Amino acid sequence: RPGLALCAGCGGRIQDPFLLRVSPDLEWHVACLKCAECGQPLDETCTCFLRDGKAYCKRDYSRLFGIKCAQCRAAFSSSDLVMRARDHVYHLECFRCAACGRQLLPGDQFCLRERDLLCRADHGPPPRRAGARAAARP
Question: How far is the C-alpha of 16 from the C-alpha of 14, rounded, in Å?
Fold first, then answer.
């Protein structure tokens, strides 16, 4: 309701005939709702993201807060295919052995050391388990 709302951007009373509501409880003057990073006006035609009381355009929100590739550190787009190793996420083309550069494909065996992926040939056989005995070969 105009005249009763306080703008989340400037803190002033909203007496304009129009206001923008972001999330259920934050209201803004039309002129105050801008991306905190690039200053792009955010209106009913674009997606708005909130973080710590600040509004961001989709591009800046993804760049600043989105999941990034563990190899190249670039953000992902919605059309990117990804590979996961534990809590790391990689672009498909970045999912490569750090030693030989071979691209690792679904089903390939690999080892993850820190952030480095190593193919089976470069990380060697799996370590023997405690209590396991080596079989003698004739």
Answer: 6
CA–CA distance, 63 with 18 (Å, rounded to integer): 30
Question: What pTM, to 2 d.p., does this model score?
Answer: 0.57
What is the distance of C-alpha 89 from the center of its chain?
A: 9
- Which domains are present in the chain? 19-65 (2.10.110.10), 67-124 (2.10.110.10)
Report helix, strand or coil for 82.
strand
Q: What is the mean pLDDT of residues 105-110?
A: 90
Q: Which helix (H) or strand (E) holds 122?
A: helix 120-123
Question: Using alpha carbons only, how large is the chain's radius of gyration in Å?
Answer: 25
**Which residue is it, tokens 């600040």?**
54
- Measured between alpha carbons, how far is 81 from 61 in angstroms, rounded to an integer? 20
Pairing of strands 110-113, 48-51: unpaired
Q: Check whether 24 has a pLDDT greater than 80.
A: no
